Amino acid sequence: MAEQEKEAALPSKENFSEWYNDILQKGEIMDVRYPVKGLYVWYPFGFNLRRNVYDLIRQLLDENHQETMFPLLIPENEFMKEAEHIKGFEDEVYWVTHGGMSPLDVKLALRPTSETAIYPMYKLWVRSHADLPLRLYQIVNTFRYETKHTRPLIRLREITSFKEAHTVHATWDDAAAQVDEAIRLYTEFYRKLAIPVLASKRPDWDKFPGADYTIATDALMPDGRTLQVGTAHHLGDNFAKTFDIQYEDAEGEQVYAHQTCYGISERSVAALISIHGDDKGLMMPPEVAPVQVAIIPIIFKKAEDVLQACEKVKEELEAAGIRVKLDASDNRPGAKYYKWEMKGVPVRLELGPRDLKKNAAMLVRRDTGEKQQVPLDNIKEEVLSLFSAIQDNLYKTAEQGLEKRIIKCESVPEIKKNLASGIAKVFWCGDKECGLKLEDEVGAGILGIPSSEDKCQGKCVVCDGDADTMVYVARTY
Amino acid sequence: MAEQEKEAALPSKENFSEWYNDILQKGEIMDVRYPVKGLYVWYPFGFNLRRNVYDLIRQLLDENHQETMFPLLIPENEFMKEAEHIKGFEDEVYWVTHGGMSPLDVKLALRPTSETAIYPMYKLWVRSHADLPLRLYQIVNTFRYETKHTRPLIRLREITSFKEAHTVHATWDDAAAQVDEAIRLYTEFYRKLAIPVLASKRPDWDKFPGADYTIATDALMPDGRTLQVGTAHHLGDNFAKTFDIQYEDAEGEQVYAHQTCYGISERSVAALISIHGDDKGLMMPPEVAPVQVAIIPIIFKKAEDVLQACEKVKEELEAAGIRVKLDASDNRPGAKYYKWEMKGVPVRLELGPRDLKKNAAMLVRRDTGEKQQVPLDNIKEEVLSLFSAIQDNLYKTAEQGLEKRIIKCESVPEIKKNLASGIAKVFWCGDKECGLKLEDEVGAGILGIPSSEDKCQGKCVVCDGDADTMVYVARTY
């Protein structure tokens, strides 16, 4: 599609916002030209990446969740049942008011999230303690009427790929354990995308509307802002009471159930693109790359031999389940390198007459640029071992980038200084007033208390009172 | 979930409508209790079937199509561009008029189908003949404000699983060839679901709004009505002119492109359930069955041995990619048989102490009820060969059922008589007036001219004029 548009170079990643918008188009991830604000189109290449990413999350969840699907449209009366919940969403809900030419009797909300669509059914499905735990998920489109600046994959009016899980448990503690399990699953998921995430318990004023508490995972973006890329909510029995979800316990008593929900969206793809990409384009972790190996025949005279050898390598790699593209187009090798680098293909395989004479091929890593000649007889093993090295290197690089940008700070000016490049870690007494004051003074948000951190003693950066925990502070998307 | 509800027997399939509603609930396909008319909930088991069915269609399309995703919301001005198209849909469109508390500047339609969402982008994507053919598809939810009687999987207000392909070609003939290819793909897809379909060219008054012509595939339901389970539309250059989709041909001229679109919905699942099921419940073609083998341990005293052997069989089958459920619950074998028959599991494997002594297991076919004892050493091959026999038998049975219910008729009374059980095949002169009169008199629809049929000579059943083709007439869903 319109090759000529893609020849211009990317802006440097130092200008992150510009680079991001540009790479979505040049890397053929999203087209931003759809004629409604906040709605975007997945290019086939981008959607292929999305498929691989969501296959991963399905794989992880399928071990003890089941996939399902609930309607998009929620009748106003159900949607309005949970007071906190509706307060949190009412400004953002799209309303369907007409079918054909006629006004509807009951207005229908486009789900901003599906609690109020799912829980009336859970009331019917949950009867006895033997039905618990119930763990379902769906991958659906959800809608938010965002008034802030929208941004592809990050802040959308149609979230096209919302994976939301909804679980039901006998006790509050079971639900709490499920929240921890969700965060573990999400961390593992992001590990496969080579993205290190920080898990932290959101302050009370930033939890999910209707929840007892929220734990979120954040990724650190190149511009020093954090992107919330996963949330898990302990719903207590709040929704169970609203939607009358009760079960009969072992003693025959009717008891309110306890619930959790947790979600991931296409922000996972945004983080992947942003964290790994460079000035040459996308850089894909092999596990999810739509094309894992691009074979470039280096052709002078004896084209047939070389093309045949390339074809043979392609077949051999494909037989091992590797996603391969043989670029036999008329473009010059340099143009091909440019193209497949832009697309983030982890390994380029060059094969010319001289390689063929040695029964070898040249493998080039997208992440480091390193080249090595390897024997064709061993090509599958060599490629797979490179994949694993690349995956490790991407994660390690991202992890180092994250670690060095988390700075312990002891004063407001120090926080402000460090927020330019990353995350501040500070003592906070836990008091809401101090928290809000801190957010206001540094112009950033408290992400929350790190999930896996030992207690420690210090003085609140705001009031100088005793604090027994540190929190992350960051500029957030 | 609520086991007790499922113990009551199904109504006989002779009362098809009752049987259908009941099996959706008892077989845990769809829950019809969602509080909005025409919207239903996929049970996890039903969604698992849906996943397998849609994986099949993805597999078929991925050979030369690419998957993508466009927004749900279409701005009114784009939606209103193609006059015929909007006429066909305006009574059925849901409109979003409010975001949060505020009215929107431009009303947004929930896509009833995506031509008007996709083609403004195709205008940007198609530049030169080298970009053609372009073949994309998406699997999305679409919406129709149905005023007729709604029915799960068949007539919905939210079609949850609309697979729509949209292709662009250089010439009218290329597009026509793509329509034929789509029908070939759909026939192959339904072959894998063991469903024979009839392809026919819809009469002009029944084509897709905005198309040159429509070819559809229909399945014959147990009550003698046909269900349209796939359509392919030749759009000519109608939409290309409306949305200005032009390409530069080899001579450097700007030329309007030619387009097709073709769709399949969860009606594919409705047909599968309806055609194969029986009075005992669902009957799944092995290829898409969520559970392909249910292992039932027959336990008296030496339970451990038997359970271990069952576990071993399960592992061996799973290693071969077979979807297995080992039912080690406390229920009696009879209750287990009932349950897994209801769920349509193609093969039941019984294993008790006597079988174990012979190093054998009993395999029971869901379709014929036949039992055979087979050696455990060969279990994988035995099961796979049964799958293939079952798949063939389901198709053969359905095909015979279809063929014997297509009756050539020579008069209106004869047509009316035969429509009770199936499809009438009659001569029609092709004149619209005759066609509409025929539909009116027999209280049924002309499906259209069979796609793969030789010309033949006869007299129009309405006007007695010359007719060189026969058409299908049927009561339709």
UniProtKB/TrEMBL annotation, chains A, B:
<dbReference type="InterPro" id="IPR002316">
    <property type="entry name" value="Pro-tRNA-ligase_IIa"/>
</dbReference>
<comment type="function">
    <text>Catalyzes the attachment of proline to tRNA(Pro) in a two-step reaction: proline is first activated by ATP to form Pro-AMP and then transferred to the acceptor end of tRNA(Pro).</text>
</comment>
<comment type="subunit">
    <text>Homodimer.</text>
</comment>
<dbReference type="InterPro" id="IPR006195">
    <property type="entry name" value="aa-tRNA-synth_II"/>
</dbReference>
<dbReference type="InterPro" id="IPR036621">
    <property type="entry name" value="Anticodon-bd_dom_sf"/>
</dbReference>
<dbReference type="Pfam" id="PF03129">
    <property type="entry name" value="HGTP_anticodon"/>
</dbReference>
<dbReference type="Pfam" id="PF00587">
    <property type="entry name" value="tRNA-synt_2b"/>
</dbReference>
<dbReference type="GO" id="GO:0004827">
    <property type="term" value="F:proline-tRNA ligase activity"/>
</dbReference>
<dbReference type="InterPro" id="IPR045864">
    <property type="entry name" value="aa-tRNA-synth_II/BPL/LPL"/>
</dbReference>
<dbReference type="Pfam" id="PF09180">
    <property type="entry name" value="ProRS-C_1"/>
</dbReference>
<dbReference type="GO" id="GO:0017101">
    <property type="term" value="C:aminoacyl-tRNA synthetase multienzyme complex"/>
</dbReference>
<keyword id="KW-0963">Cytoplasm</keyword>
<keyword id="KW-0648">Protein biosynthesis</keyword>
<dbReference type="InterPro" id="IPR002314">
    <property type="entry name" value="aa-tRNA-synt_IIb"/>
</dbReference>
<dbReference type="GO" id="GO:0005737">
    <property type="term" value="C:cytoplasm"/>
</dbReference>
<protein>
    <recommendedName>
        <fullName>Proline--tRNA ligase</fullName>
        <ecNumber>6.1.1.15</ecNumber>
    </recommendedName>
</protein>
<keyword id="KW-0067">ATP-binding</keyword>
<keyword id="KW-0030">Aminoacyl-tRNA synthetase</keyword>
<dbReference type="GO" id="GO:0005524">
    <property type="term" value="F:ATP binding"/>
</dbReference>
<feature type="domain" description="Aminoacyl-transfer RNA synthetases class-II family profile">
    <location>
        <begin position="38"/>
        <end position="285"/>
    </location>
</feature>
<dbReference type="InterPro" id="IPR017449">
    <property type="entry name" value="Pro-tRNA_synth_II"/>
</dbReference>
<dbReference type="InterPro" id="IPR004499">
    <property type="entry name" value="Pro-tRNA-ligase_IIa_arc-type"/>
</dbReference>
<dbReference type="InterPro" id="IPR016061">
    <property type="entry name" value="Pro-tRNA_ligase_II_C"/>
</dbReference>
<dbReference type="InterPro" id="IPR033721">
    <property type="entry name" value="ProRS_core_arch_euk"/>
</dbReference>
<dbReference type="GO" id="GO:0006433">
    <property type="term" value="P:prolyl-tRNA aminoacylation"/>
</dbReference>
<keyword id="KW-0547">Nucleotide-binding</keyword>
<dbReference type="InterPro" id="IPR004154">
    <property type="entry name" value="Anticodon-bd"/>
</dbReference>
<comment type="similarity">
    <text>Belongs to the class-II aminoacyl-tRNA synthetase family. ProS type 3 subfamily.</text>
</comment>
<keyword id="KW-0436">Ligase</keyword>
